């Protein structure tokens, strides 16, 4: 069994494995070419394992061996953190004897995990510490537009979130009918509020959530996301680290059943790893590139102090989904915050599971809007920040020629390029996505000017 190469795979079985409980065999693997394991310990992600597979059933002993081999240090670090927290009085939970700097030998880790599986019902220190930080009220903003079909899945997951004081604010953005309201009405929950934001665009909807929020902290999740039960505990604890203004969490696919979803897993940048990182100008050597804030994370999983979001004016209504720019409102917010020495933290234990589109036609449009939005964002920086014009221009040129055209010349020979317009129907979906992205990047600057004009019209109505 080999390490997984996503570009060569057509379908993947996705599983979640909790190490503090006895592992069960993985079955029903027929028809998939690979296995992707999200590995958690005490409910918190410690890593993932991806490998090709043709066996219809995988036994627990094999899984433990595979996990310990690839994630031994991650598991050890989690246990060390638990040990340190226990010494601070957060729990009487049994902690195996683990020494800093100790080599994570395979047999020892397997033994440690076996011991952990006998302690059901005792709260681990990592959870007790997070719970001790849950003293702030939270508003969870779920912005949706014609998303009734998937909204119920998100609300079901949010109702299971473990946090003592939070509300759910559903913002129905320029709805075409009352289908979203009918979904919310089914819950009949005092925790859920429903508001209509008539101005189209996700930034208008998010800004309405910021304005209407009752919580000290505002968290955002997409309408098709499934937040983990420990999601808010992890976000809020991370937000209380020194000088932290905003936290972005991790995203993990719910399923990968066809080539379109494999494309998303390989190209959408959600796989950011399981190491906590800080993005701040206070960090030595940062930022090497001030415009790469699109790599930090996204508004599909973030939390911030309400006062900080208000200070920065929320999300730019000329950017984001539902605008003529196409996307990048979160990229722009991150950029403005980091520019002013605010700290953004990536917290890998704050997890949401997301649904990847399974239709290449949707992906062609999606990646076009993504490229348009990013180049619209660079255009905004070029216009509004004279001191950074050269840097913004350089980023745009490098992004276009160094990324898109480089990929284009790898896909096609120079002799084929003039004939692409005549061969569109014969191109592979991946090639059509690439061409759509190039078209989006070229239209981004013009779309930004159109979006600015449109936002002014909307604001005046």
Automatic annotation (TrEMBL):
Where would I find the Glycosyltransferase 2-like domain in this sequence? 139-266
- Which CDD domains does the record match to this protein? Glyco_tranf_GTA_type
Extract the InterPro entries matched here. Answer: Glyco_trans_2-like, Glycosyltransf_2, Nucleotide-diphossugar_trans
In Pfam terms, one family for this protein is Glycos_transf_2
Source organism, top-level taxon: Bacteria
The record, for SUPFAM superfamilies, names: Nucleotide-diphospho-sugar transferases (SSF53448)
Gene3D superfamilies the record matches: Spore Coat Polysaccharide Biosynthesis Protein SpsA, Chain A
Full protein name: Glycosyltransferase
Q: Which organism is it from?
A: Candidatus Chlorohelix allophototropha
Q: Tell me the classification of the organism that encodes this protein.
A: Bacteria, Bacillati, Chloroflexota, Chloroflexia, Candidatus Chloroheliales
């Amino acid at each position: 069994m080999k390490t997984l190469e996503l570009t060569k795979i057509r379908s993947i079985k996705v599983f979640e494995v909790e190490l503090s409980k006895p592992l069960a065999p993985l079955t029903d693997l027929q028809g998939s070419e690979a296995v992707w394991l999200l590995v958690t310990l005490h409910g918190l992600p410690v890593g993932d394992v991806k490998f090709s597979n043709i066996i219809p059933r995988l036994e627990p002993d094999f899984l433990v061996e595979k996990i310990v081999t690839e994630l031994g240090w991650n598991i050890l670090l989690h246990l060390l953190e638990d040990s340190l927290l226990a010494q601070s009085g957060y729990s009487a939970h049994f902690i195996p004897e683990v020494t800093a700097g100790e080599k994570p030998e395979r047999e020892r880790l397997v033994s440690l995990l076996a011991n952990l599986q006998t302690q059901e019902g005792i709260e681990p220190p990592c959870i007790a510490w997070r719970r001790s930080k849950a003293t702030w009220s939270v508003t969870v903003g779920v912005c949706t537009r014609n998303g009734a079909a998937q909204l119920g899945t998100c609300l079901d997951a949010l109702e299971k979130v473990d946090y003592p004081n939070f509300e759910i604010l559903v913002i129905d953005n320029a709805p075409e009918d009352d289908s979203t309201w009918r979904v919310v009405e089914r819950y009949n929950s005092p925790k859920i509020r429903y508001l209509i934001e008539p101005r189209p665009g996700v930034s208008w909807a998010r800004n309405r959530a910021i304005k209407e929020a009752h919580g000290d902290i505002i968290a955002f999740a997409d309408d098709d996301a499934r937040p983990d039960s420990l999601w808010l505990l992890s976000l809020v604890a991370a937000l209380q680290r020194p000088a932290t203004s905003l936290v972005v969490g991790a995203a993990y696919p719910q399923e990968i059943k066809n080539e379109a979803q494999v494309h998303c897993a390989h190209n959408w940048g959600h796989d950011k790893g399981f190491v906590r990182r800080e993005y701040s100008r206070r960090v030595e050597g940062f930022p090497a590139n001030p415009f790469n804030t699109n790599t930090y994370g996204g508004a599909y999983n973030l939390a911030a102090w309400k006062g900080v979001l208000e200070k920065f004016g929320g999300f730019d209504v000329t950017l984001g989904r539902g605008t003529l720019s196409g996307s990048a409102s979160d990229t722009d917010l991150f950029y403005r915050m980091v520019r002013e020495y605010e700290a953004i933290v990536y917290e890998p234990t704050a997890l949401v599971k997301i649904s990847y589109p399974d239709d290449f036609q949707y992906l062609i449009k999606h990646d076009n809007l993504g490229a348009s939005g990013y180049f619209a964002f660079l255009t905004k920086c070029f216009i509004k920040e004279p001191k950074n014009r050269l840097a913004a221009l350089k980023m745009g040129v490098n992004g276009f020629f160094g990324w898109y055209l480089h990929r284009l010349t790898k896909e096609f020979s120079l002799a084929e390029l003039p004939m692409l317009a005549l061969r569109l129907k014969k191109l592979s979906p991946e090639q059509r996505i690439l061409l759509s992205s190039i078209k989006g990047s070229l239209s981004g600057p013009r779309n930004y000017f159109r979006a600015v004009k449109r936002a002014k019209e909307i604001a005046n109505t």
